[in-house]
Design brief:
The chain has 419 residues and is an alpha/beta fold. It is built from 16 helices and 14 strands. Helix content is 38%, strand content 15%. The structure holds ligand P1T. Ligand P1T binds next to helix 5 and helix 6. Its cofactor is pyridoxal 5'-phosphate.
């Protein structure tokens, strides 16, 4: 793309040197960065779409002195292209592209030593809970507490001398609680612990706001988070065809530790997957805007419907953190949860009646998905915990896609009639 980059390509380099070049993108808008950072025309033929580099190993000019990559588990050009792209979108210095969202979580947890403590928000994806409860705690001797982060004094009080990581999803999956990122980050800083934000539901496009009159981006890392995590499988990938995750951060020392963990456990992403994710991220902003417009309308429609008991959507004034969402994000996202009036049978009839929404786990794709967390994504959460959180049998989660709004609304209408 520019001579600076070409020069670097000709020299032996550490991977993170490439990230340092990307400050030139920092003043550009979100979509410009999404489309260009990491996607520069290739140096040989000028291809405008990055090549999928399938090499598993790389020739070394001198023993032990690779040009940049030595072995593809540790890094490869297509993965680096995506990592630069992700870092730019999260206003981060560095990023790792990993082979699933769970892999991102596990790679981070490798930083822990037996006896240390993780404080996690009480409502997180069922798979994350399964890993935290059944592997990290039961098999690896890490202590775990899960609490609501709504009361900041509770968060402060729950951080113990052996706490190493505070982990939040925002909005949480599936009850859509919002965490005050800046406030929790301040507590973590004061206590000297890492703060990890799983931003999957918002995506890098929405979890940002601009300081009034300053045009200064405030991504979670700017608000004080240590690490941002995404399941790329969702909005960044956007087409329900790739399972991936990522970690974004600013701290070089932590980057080195995570690099060691990634290469040791083999959690890095494959070149094919990175290519798909790079393709997805280019359209993230327009997909999010459209999905969010649909979500707002559908949430309002559900809220007015007599067969619906309650709707949870951060873009509704009825959401307890409506103001916080407005303050900290560009928009309320495209995930909606609601309680249908009735029992498990009513929920089942409704879920079987939808025609355009697909009854399936996952979220964030162009197609609208719908599911019952109690029986599907959060089945592994202990029933008593599901009860506390309100993940009841009649609780339904929607991932709004980008189809035509009228078709989506008509589908919900006819399915509610059949329920
Ligand atoms: O599926 P994977 O790419 O490994 O990502 C795990 C993950 C991490 N964080 C959040 C907030 C998630 O929602 C997920 C995956 N969630 C689903 C599959 C789901 O249907 O909720």
């Amino acid at each position: 793309m520019d001579s600076e980059l070409k020069q670097l390509e000709a020299q032996p380099q550490q991977m993170w040197d490439y990230f340092s070049l990307d400050s030139k993108y920092s003043e550009l808008g979100f979509s410009t960065r999404a489309i260009h950072c990491g996607n520069e025309p290739d140096g040989k033929f000028g291809g405008v779409s990055p090549a999928i580099d399938l090499s598993t190993t790389y020739a070394q000019p001198y023993p032990g002195q690779p040009m940049c990559f030595d072995y593809a588990r540790c890094g490869n050009p297509t993965r680096l292209a995506l990592e630069r792209n992700l870092a730019s979108l999260e206003n981060a210095k560095y990023a790792f592209a990993l082979n699933s969202g769970m892999s991102a979580c596990v790679t981070i947890m490798q930083l822990l030593t037996q006896g240390e403590h993780v404080l996690c928000i009480d409502d997180v994806y069922g798979g994350t809970q399964r890993y935290l409860r059944k592997i990290l705690t039961e098999k690896q001797g890490i202590e775990l507490s899960m609490i609501d982060f709504g009361n900041l004094d509770d968060v402060r009080a729950a951080i113990k001398p052996n706490t190493r990581i505070v982990w939040a999803e925002t909005p949480t999956n599936p009850t859509l609680k919002i965490c005050d990122i800046a406030a929790v980050a301040e507590i973590c800083k004061e206590k000297g612990v890492m703060f990890v934000v799983d931003n999957t539901f918002m995506s890098p496009y929405l979890q940002v706001f601009y300081l009034k009159h300053q045009y200064q981006k405030q991504n979670p890392l700017n608000l004080g988070a240590t690490i941002v995590v995404h399941s790329i499988t969702k909005y960044i990938g956007g087409h329900s065809d790739v399972v991936m995750g990522c970690i974004c951060l600013n701290d070089k020392e932590l980057y080195d530790k995570l690099f060691f963990s990634m290469k040791s456990i083999g959690s890095g992403a494959s070149p094919f997957d990175c290519y798909l994710a790079l393709r997805g991220s280019k359209t993230l902003a327009i997909r999010m805007e459209r999905a969010m417009q649909n979500a707002q309308q559908i949430a309002e429609y559900l809220e007015s419907h007599e067969k619906v008991e309650k709707v949870i959507y951060p873009g509704l004034q009825s959401h307890p953190q409506y103001e916080l969402t407005k303050r900290q994000s560009r928009g309320p996202g495209a995930m909606i949860s609601f309680y249908i009036k009735g029992d498990i049978k009513t929920a089942e009839r409704f879920l079987r009646a939808v025609k355009i929404f697909t009854l399936a786990e996952s979220l964030g794709g162009v197609e609208s998905l719908i599911e019952n967390p109690a029986l599907m994504t959060h089945f592994s959460v202990p029933p008593e915990q599901r009860k506390i959180l309100g993940i009841d049998d009649n609780f339904i989660r929607i991932s709004t896609g980008i189809e035509d709004l009228k078709d989506l609304k008509d589908d919900i209408k006819q399915a509610l009639e059949k329920a």
